[in-house]
Design brief:
Elements: E1 6-14, E2 17-25, E3 36-42, E4 45-51, E5 57-63, E6 72-79, E7 84-89, E8 99-104
Antiparallel strand pairs: 1-2, 3-4, 4-7, 5-6, 5-8
């Protein structure tokens, strides 16, 4: 929840003394945060739509089994538009279960991707 944003502090006291630390938690607006907005089945394909930011790049991964933590790239270096973009997982609907994740890619040196 956005109301959870703020500065949090912790103090630990023990035989060796006292240690203090603090951190600030900043939360994004859920309406503009990265996330899958829709999934569509078109024949045997899965079309994923997700929110993006202009001048950023994204990767879409899939997994057939979350228990083994193995991900395969569906699309890489997908350019953000500031709106919703779509990626197609060809034959994705022909599997009994499939999981998807979207990753924001870090900037590359010299601004190239």
């Amino acid at each position: 929840m956005l109301s959870d944003a703020g500065t949090y502090s912790v103090e630990v006291t023990g035989n060796c003394g006292v240690a203090n630390s603090s951190a600030t938690l900043t939360l994004g607006d859920p309406a503009t945060c990265l996330g899958i907005t829709t999934t569509q089945l078109v024949g045997s394909n899965v079309i994923l739509s997700f929110t993006t930011t202009s001048n950023e790049f994204y990767r879409v991964d899939r997994s057939d089994d979350l228990g083994v933590n193995q991900w395969v790239t569906v699309a890489d270096h997908v350019p953000g538009t500031g709106g919703v973009v779509q990626v197609t997982d060809v034959a994705g609907a022909s599997h009994p279960s499939r999981f998807y994740r979207i990753a924001l890619l870090p900037p590359e040196p010299c601004g190239r991707r």
